[in-house]
């Protein structure tokens, strides 16, 4: 198996590549940023502080199993097209592998391994009984018809069916997939098993066994972590300002819930650009505007600004909620927020982390900050297994309990060890995974 991201890639002017495939130049060499390399650096920094048995560290750090398949899919014109697809199970030490399925043209094995690994640590930080997994298909879902997407999804399940199951590996939506893809996934699995198995995926439509509160869960988790961080730093949220990069599921809901707590958003961006109003942007109205216009640009009372103005805004809270590798060693010094609440996975590189720490910026790491989604996925799986569904306020109450407990656990380790919240988050997660590995032993 070769890792294609190791190949140097030439730099194109105005390239529209996603940041996960960003290029760094070192002494005339062009080296792509390996997202999995970033996770390993984060892991190593925490492992060093923990001073634990290095052979156990080697065991829990590497992905357990990476599967690559080439899927033949019948297109609407009758031709067949091949699609490369991945499923990585990083760990099943604490429970079944858990993690989303991404449809995107830039998906690579490196990225899927990184995302699977983050899932292991994320599930451990919020203390839910899952390991980590992730899947991806190299495709542009916007260029496929509904029928093509359905056939692609069903073939993905069929070709790796032995990996999946409510006690084995439980996918969920990610970038480019949603409840509809999960419904096809569940149906294909159920047809092959000849029985109903709703717990094989989460993020399903409510009528198929999805959980109330799942759609809002990640944004709600971002709000809860930010609220706890503000309490810790003695920042009064009703006087606080904020900026959000990315106004999709995570960014818009996180911003709406913080706006409800009195936070003033001065900067918002999405893929089309960035808007600014020093007096504050009404987030409820912006969400309605986005639904109507499909873009935030032109929202009344705001002016369009450079996209990076969002990252460098002088605000109390910055929420990167779009892409990986947006805060790097090249721009981290320009970040002026007091709290960085990582809604996205991997928005800050390890080098940038050091700069933010030096500048005394409180980073709520992704494995904690955006863990609300997987937490409610766990609740969905539990509800599927008991066959009884909770009202939304019950889901939200349980989510709050889990997120606040996780935040406090990480904060305590951070204070005790004089570690950043990122390193402390990894320390909490690693200790929990090591604990079960030591009790189970390594079968060899
Ligand atoms: P989404 O597709 O709903 O929204 C993404 C947003 O980012 C959109 O507003 C898009 O316009 C914007 N965007 C894209 N490129 C941009 C750019 N260059 N500059 C500024 N904005 C840009 O996706 P989402 O579900 O909100 O996920 C966002 C991030 O959160 C991803 O990193 C994802 O892995 C992570 N995440 C999501 C969940 C979840 O439950 N949805 C859970 C955990 C982590």
Structure, described:
It is globular and about 55 Å long. With 444 residues, it is of the alpha/beta class. 51% of the residues are buried. The chain has 14 helices and 14 strands. The longest helix is centred in the last third of the chain and has 26 residues, at 392-417. It has a domain at 13-18 and 63-211: Rossmann fold (3-Layer(aba) Sandwich), CATH 3.40.50. Helix 6 crosses helix 12. The protein has helices at 35-50, 54-61, 109-125, 146-159, 179-193, 214-233, 249-260, 283-293, 308-311, 350-358, 366-369, 372-386, 392-417, 421-440, and strands at residues 23-26, 29-32, 65-74, 80-91, 97-104, 132-138, 169-173, 241-245, 264-270, 273-276, 303-305, 317-320, 339-341, 362-364. The strands form three sheets. Strands 11-10-9-8-12-13-14 form a seven-stranded mixed beta sheet, sandwiched between helices. A five-stranded mixed beta sheet has the order 3-4-6-5-7. The two termini are 24 Å apart. Helix content is 43%, strand content 18%. The structure holds nicotinamide-adenine-dinucleotide. Nicotinamide-adenine-dinucleotide binds at residues 174-175, 218, 245-251, 269-271, 307, 321-323, 343-345, 370, 373. Nicotinamide-adenine-dinucleotide binds next to helix 7 and strand 9.
Topology:
Layout: E1 23-26, E2 29-32, H1 35-50, H2 54-61, E3 65-74, E4 80-91, E5 97-104, H3 109-125, E6 132-138, H4 146-159, E7 169-173, H5 179-193, H6 214-233, E8 241-245, H7 249-260, E9 264-270, E10 273-276, H8 283-293, E11 303-305, H9 308-311, E12 317-320, E13 339-341, H10 350-358, E14 362-364, H11 366-369, H12 372-386, H13 392-417, H14 421-440
The structure holds nicotinamide-adenine-dinucleotide.
Nicotinamide-adenine-dinucleotide (NAD) binds at residues 174-175, 218, 245-251, 269-271, 307, 321-323, 343-345, 370, 373.
């Amino acid at each position: 198996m070769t890792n294609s991201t190791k190949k140097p890639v030439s730099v194109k002017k105005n390239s529209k590549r996603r940041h996960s495939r960003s290029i760094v130049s070192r002494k005339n060499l062009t080296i792509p940023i390996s997202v999995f390399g970033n996770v390993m650096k984060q892991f190593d920094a925490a492992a060093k502080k923990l001073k634990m048995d290095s052979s156990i560290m080697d065991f829990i750090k590497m992905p357990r199993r990476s599967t690559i398949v080439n899927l033949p899919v019948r297109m609407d014109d009758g031709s067949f097209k091949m699609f490369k697809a991945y499923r990585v199970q990083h760990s099943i030490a604490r429970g079944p592998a858990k993690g989303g399925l991404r449809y995107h043209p830039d998906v690579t094995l490196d990225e899927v391994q990184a995302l699977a690994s983050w899932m292991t640590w994320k599930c451990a930080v919020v203390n839910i009984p899952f390991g980590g997994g992730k899947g991806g298909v190299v495709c542009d879902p916007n260029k496929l018809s509904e029928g093509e997407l359905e056939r692609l999804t069903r073939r993905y399940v069929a070709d790796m069916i032995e990996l999946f199951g409510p006690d084995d590996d439980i996918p969920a939506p990610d970038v480019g997939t949603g409840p509809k893809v999960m419904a096809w996934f569940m149906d294909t699995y159920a047809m092959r098993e000849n029985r109903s198995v709703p717990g094989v995926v989460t993020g399903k439509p409510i009528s198929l066994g999805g959980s109330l509160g799942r759609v809002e869960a990640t944004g709600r988790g971002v709000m809860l972590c930010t609220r706890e961080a503000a309490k810790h730093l003695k920042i009064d949220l009703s006087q606080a300002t904020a900026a959000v990069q990315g106004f999709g599921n995570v960014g818009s809901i996180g911003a709406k819930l913080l706006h409800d707590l009195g936070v003033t958003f001065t900067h918002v961006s999405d893929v089309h650009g960035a808007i600014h109003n020093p007096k504050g942007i009404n987030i409820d109205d912006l969400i309605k505007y986005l639904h109507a216009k499909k873009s935030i640009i032109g929202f009344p009372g705001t002016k369009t600004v450079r996209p990076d103005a969002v990252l460098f805004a002088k605000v109390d809270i910055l929420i990167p909620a779009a892409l990986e590798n947006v805060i790097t060693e090249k721009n981290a010094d320009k970040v002026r927020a007091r709290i960085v609440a990582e809604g996205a996975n991997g928005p800050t590189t390890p080098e940038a982390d050091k700069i933010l720490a030096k500048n005394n910026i409180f980073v709520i790491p992704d494995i904690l900050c955006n863990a609300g989604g997987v937490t409610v996925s766990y609740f969905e799986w539990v509800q599927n297994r008991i066959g009884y569904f909770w009202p939304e306020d019950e889901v939200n109450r349980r989510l709050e309990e889990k997120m606040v407990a996780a935040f406090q656990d990480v904060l305590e380790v951070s204070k005790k060890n004089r570690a950043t919240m990122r390193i402390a988050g990894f320390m909490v997660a690693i200790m929990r995974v090591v604990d079960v590995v030591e009790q189970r032993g390594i079968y060899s």
